[in-house]
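[scheduler] slot 2 assigned
[scheduler] job type: sequence-to-structure, two independent chains
[scheduler] chain ordering preserved from manifest
[runner] begin chain α
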Amino acid sequence: MFSKEEAAKLRKEFWTSFGKSFPRKWLLYNTKIKGLSFKFVADRKKAAVCLDIETPDELVNLLYYEQMISLKTLLENELPEVIFDDGYQLENGKQIHRIYVPFDGKFSIHNKNTWRDCYEFYIETMNAFELFYYEYEDVIKNI
């Protein structure tokens, strides 16, 4: 087991190493749609690339999510492993709409031997997700 300080240091090292190994400006929060953001997720047991829909207005969230559902088949052609979750619960208890691709390999942010495979997954998956977003940005924004 790691102390909180050790775990925090490993998390920081994981993200710093990722940024230095693969320097690139990602779309992430720059979708130009308030409440719609791409995220890299990593913890002790799993990693994923996500598109989170979480505006303060639940009706707006639902409209964006339904817009993404209308593109589901097209997205599945690019990312067959994609999961649509209209009731994803964050650790803080907040419920959001999340569209994500989980890393299916062995991973733990506490195990440096698993980092490289995760980084490669991040690069490949986020790139495909961003390309899809740019291709259908006008459709997604049209709610």
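[runner] end chain α
[runner] begin chain β
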Amino acid sequence: MRPETLSIIGFGAFGQLIARHLRPHLALSVCDPCVRPNDLPQVDPAQAARADIVVLAVPLPQLEAVLRAIAPHLRPGSTVIDVSSIKVEPARLMLDLLPDHVGIVASHPLFGPASAAGGIAGHRIAWCPLRGRGDRRLAAFLKARGLQVIPTTPDQHDRDMAVVQGLTHLIARSLSRLGPLPRDMATRSFAMLAEAAAMVQDDSPELLATILKANPHAASVRQRFLAEAAGIADEL
């Protein structure tokens, strides 16, 4: 029995995190136009598409081009998984552009290189099976690695993330523009808020744009939050 193969298309910070935790269990390869120092096989999109599992860890604006590049080369029975921070648009693109003979899962690991620095066990991953039957076996594999697999739909995911990520990043960026934050006089609650903000402070501009603009529910949640904050200030 040959080991199951997995290709990672997009080897940025999150692609590298995936490789670090999955390489003991699967035969990995990497596809990225920017060759970053590592000892994994470097492949082109056509070769990456021939793996049993293809993980798409690319920024949302690049997703459509990647899907078109790999679609003709995907093997029957393989599974394609994206890890974007939103799910409605990636799910639509994958269903529209990928052949019927492959399984599709829209996923969102609810952690990143900073929050999972000590390991992925105990962290959560949003899991939206869209086509095929391979998702159950993959979900069991992830659970065995210590992840909590949370079934959801693309639309429900984006509604929840408009609050969870949209407001977190909005508050984090707002705090950063206030200048150096107090340290000596900080309360425990403020220290926790500053710590949460620091965890997302170094996220890429592409990720920020995806979270704050590409999520179809983000704008309305943001407007409600700002209106409530302004209302509280007016009441005082």
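[runner] end chain β
[qc] chain β: The radius of gyration is 19 Å.
[scheduler] slot 2 released
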